[in-house]
Amino acid sequence: MRFNPILSFSACLLVLGFALSGCTKYAPFEGYAYDCECGGLTWGDRALNMRMAEAEVISEDSTVWRYHVVADLRREPEIENRDEPRDLVMTIQTTVTGDSSHHVFAAGDADFKLQEVDSPGIAVSWAMEGADLSISTSATSHTLVLHSLSANRAGNVVNAQGVFTFDLQD
Predict the structure, then answer these.
(1) Is the overall model pTM greater than 0.85, yes or no?
(2) Cα 145 from chain centroid?
(3) Which residues of the chain have pLDDT under 50?
(4) Could you count the other beta carbons within 10 Å of the beta carbon of residue 65?
(5) Are 127 and 152 in contact, with CB atoms under 8 Å apart?
(6) How many whole angstroms separate alpha carbon 73 and alpha carbon 90?
(7) Secondary structure (3-state) at 35
C-alpha cells in the first residue's frame, strides 16, 4: 500500500472538523456587580454597590448594638474588568433605646471606624472627622440613616450619606 498525501490530508481535515464541531462554546463571562439590596451609600459624588449590612447586639440588656456596613469602592471600569476587590468597611457601635435615636460622633470617636480593605487583605484606615446619624428600630429590623459623614485619608476628604437596613430575622 502506497502513501497517498491527498487521502491523508483529507482524513486530517475530517478529524479536525469533528474535533472543532464537538467543542462546547460558552458565551463570554459578562460579570455582575454584587449588591445586597440592604441600602445605599453615596461616597463623595458616587453611589457605591452594597456588599453587606449586619447588626449584632453587644450587651446583655440589648441596648448596645454594633453595625457593620461593607460597600464596594471600585469604580465602574474596575468592576467591569473584574479588578481585585476594594471595600469600604464601616463599624459603628452605639447605644440604642426606644424606637428611634439620634447620634453624633466627633472626630476620632473609637465607636465609629472606617477602613478601606484592598485585596489581598491590605487594610488602610480612614480618619472619621464627624458623623451624624439616626437609627429607627422595629422587632424585625433596624434602619440607620447616615445624614452626614466626613472622612479623611492622606488629605483626601470625602463626604458621605446613606441609608442601611439591617434585617434581624435570620
Answers:
(1) no
(2) 18
(3) 29
(4) 20
(5) yes
(6) 12
(7) coil
